[in-house]
Amino acid sequence: MPHLSLPQVEALARRAHAGQEDKAGRPYAEHLRAVADGVRARGGSEAQIAAAWLHDAVEDEALTAQELADAALPREVKDIVLALTKRPGEDPARYADRILAVPGARLVKEADLAHNADPARLAALDAPTRDRLTAKYARMRRLLGLTTD
């Protein structure tokens, strides 16, 4: 069975997340596009760009793990998406270790964190939420070795 093209993956992600909004009340597809564009800008592969479109699909219950498994996607895309899928109550260090263990996942998470931590995006949130998320994203960047400090 041929794999889905990037436009088909984008359409799948948009359908799966239809009606969802981010924490600032924006359509969730805007975040997915920003992460996919961030992966592309960082020199990511087609598989990484596809995974960027789907990176939150299972975690947000937009797709089930079985639907992802059944999708006409390369194993690499599925592996990256599953690596990026946080488990309820999961320790951040364990989550980071899984990302680091799956080839290609770190770059997708880097693009995700970059968009999540965008000051313009964070400015739409209340101060306590903004502060909590800023600290959370900084910790994950450190765990993934994405900081210079």
What descriptive keywords fit this protein?
149 residues
- Number of strand segments: 0
Order of helices and strands: HHHHHHHHH
State the helix count: 9
Q: Which stretches are low in confidence, meaning pLDDT under 50 for 5 or more residues running?
A: none
**How large is the radius of gyration?**
15 Å
The whole-number mean of residue pLDDT values reads 94
**Terminal-residue CA separation:** 46 Å
Oligomeric assembly: single chain
Percentage of residues assigned to helices? 55-70%
What overall geometry do the principal axes of the alpha carbons give? globular
Structural class by sheet pairing and helices: mainly alpha
Short description:
With 149 residues, the protein is mainly alpha-helical. It has helices spanning 6-16, 28-41, 46-54, 65-70, 75-83, 92-101, 105-116, 119-122, 127-143.
Describe this structure in words.
Helix content is 62%, strand content 0%. The chain has helices at residues 6-16, 28-41, 46-54, 65-70, 75-83, 92-101, 105-116, 119-122, 127-143. It has 149 residues and is an all-alpha fold. The termini are far apart.
List the helices and strands and how they pair.
Elements: H1 6-16, H2 28-41, H3 46-54, H4 65-70, H5 75-83, H6 92-101, H7 105-116, H8 119-122, H9 127-143
Helix pairs in contact: 1-3, 2-3, 2-7, 3-5, 3-7
